[in-house]
Amino acid sequence: MPTQVKSHFYAYISKLRWLQRWGMKRNVINENVMEHSWEVATIAHALALIKNRYFDGKVDVNAVVVAALYHDCSEVITGDMPSPVKYHTPELTRAYKAIEHEADRELLNLLPAGLQDDYRPVLVEAEMDPEQMSLIKAADTISAYLKCKAEVQAGNQEFRQAELDVGARLQRYDSPEVTFFLETFAPSYGLTLDELLR
Asked: In what residue span(s) does the HD/PDEase domain sit (predicted)?
């Protein structure tokens, strides 16, 4: 049995529940990073399965789901940077990406040495499988789109332009699995519980 060393890793990332997303917008429906990560993981799971089942993909579905669960862990250090700020200028984007990469490595170093190689491909974005990362980014964008639609449907016009912008970003994806998900699953998100149960 290996020598056990105490690690703060999971206690640290459990704080993701306190990080609110969309911090620069008034929200009708609050969303924290932990619940967002779960939603992205479920959508990424669907995208990977759809890709494999219908579009001749050979993706490791379980690896996609695990990486999706951890995809925003660095935000426990960096906070949730709103996209309009993160991508405002190329200089800001480069600076923020450098901070994210440093946060990824800092989190990795919290783990026992014997586990770090196992976590590296899910914690350090630069070392993730590109095809898996592409599915996770698509799932992240779908999650953002569904959030914007829910806010607008709840009467919050603060998200109207974001819904248009994120929707346009989704249309630029050259991905049959994204189209399949949006056509098959997304329309139901606008229904009430009573309508879903009918």
From this structure: 29-154
